Amino acid sequence: AQTVTQSQPEMSVQEAETVTLSCTYDTSESDYYLFWYKQPPSRQMILVIRQEAYKQQNATENRFSVNFQKAAKSFSLKISDSQLGDAAMYFCAYRSGNQGGSEKLVFGKGTKLTVNP
Amino acid sequence: GAVVSQHPSRVICKSGTSVKIECRSLDFQATTMFWYRQFPKQSLMLMATSNEGSKATYEQGVEKDKFLINHASLTLSTLTVTSAHPEDSSFYICSASAGFYNEQFFGPGTRLTVL
Question: Whole-angstrom Cα distance, residue B2 to residue B13?
Answer without folding.
Answer: 31
